[in-house]
Design goal:
Elements lengths: L1 E2 L6 E3 L7 E6 L5 E6 L4 E5 L4 E7 L7 E7 L5 E8 L2 E8 L14
Antiparallel strand pairs: 1-2, 3-4, 4-5, 5-6, 7-8, 8-9
Length: 107
Amino acid sequence: QVLDRVSHQVVFDVSESSQPTSLEFFPDGRVLVSGHENGTIQGWHLPSGQALGILFQPYQSRGVPDFLQVSDNGSRLLLGYLQNGQLLPKILGHGEHSRLPASTSAH
């Protein structure tokens, strides 16, 4: 659950669809991305509490996303899936097939 730091009220629950395994904030602090047990990466707009939806859905089982890192400018997301004791990297970025937010300040 994500809580408002002033009111301590629940803003939204990142575990609605699947248990989260990793979390990372975009550099501007307005978007949170979460990796889940079902392999998906989901996005959340913090000021509004709105789900941005699934940003990445593996086409085959990659395991659990254990590692997330957003680039300094928010244009790339590095994922690490633990599979058979090895960390398998995946890089997401802006492009025609990317679901990463183009600019978090517009939300």
